[in-house]
Amino acid sequence: MLHSNLKYLREKKNLSQERIAELLAVSRATYSNYEKQQSSEPSASKLLKLATFYKVDVDALLKQNLSINLFNPKPENVDNILSKETRILPVTVSDNQKYNVEFVATKAVAGYVESISDVEYVADLPRIHIPNLPYGQHRAFEIQGDSMPPIRDGFIVIGKYLERASDLQNGKRYVLVLRNGEVLFKKVVSELDKQKKLILVSDNSEYQPYSVAAKDVLQAWEFVAYIGFPTKRDMDYLVLDKLHQIEQKIDLIATNTKR
Length: 259
Prior knowledge:
Elements: H1 2-12, H2 17-24, H3 28-36, H4 44-54, H5 58-63, E1 101-104, H6 109-114, H7 119-123, E2 127-128, E3 138-142, E4 156-161, E5 173-178, E6 183-191, H8 192-195, E7 197-201, E8 210-213, E9 217-227, H9 232-258
Parallel strand pairs: 1-3
Antiparallel strand pairs: 1-2, 3-4, 4-9, 5-6, 5-9, 6-7, 7-8
Helix pairs in contact: 2-3
């Protein structure tokens, strides 16, 4: 029971094996064996340190299955954006205790989707430093295609993690991680209340809107920045897009004034 509880509690806190190994002053390999029950159990002093760290009784750590909560059964939709429970998002932190920005390249997308809740997998992802990001947990994704100008093939989009589907805002751009192994960057129109789906709209008018079921969206990341080298045409598009946003705000103000 101890080995499964150690893994459950660590993953619940979004911590890596290296972090707990440091806490216990042992090697990562030694701690990994604790979780796999491939070696002797931790000493009494280490068990006490673990119990104190996780705020559980030593007896419960040793004898109870802490992953089972009899009064709150595992909810449905726990692995997608419709979940009403807090979902585990594996993250890593820098030496100064700030969240890292992990980078998911195109070639790594399939593995990322398959290991989306695996702390060890996320800990092995490359990391990039982006200064002055807003507060929150961010991730960087390499984008394919030309459906969202000025973003093009090879550009990197940085997104801020959305914990709840209700935080999605119509007309905003998001990176969506889908169950089928795709990572998409699109403008979103929410139809969650009526049909439990999202309408995905491209900024490039050559691409038609289409929908995805919300249950198939594992993660949503709100667009905050991108890395790339835009052309003059791309910059012209940015200006036109900004003007369009201003027009929409003016129309909204005018409508509210008439009421």
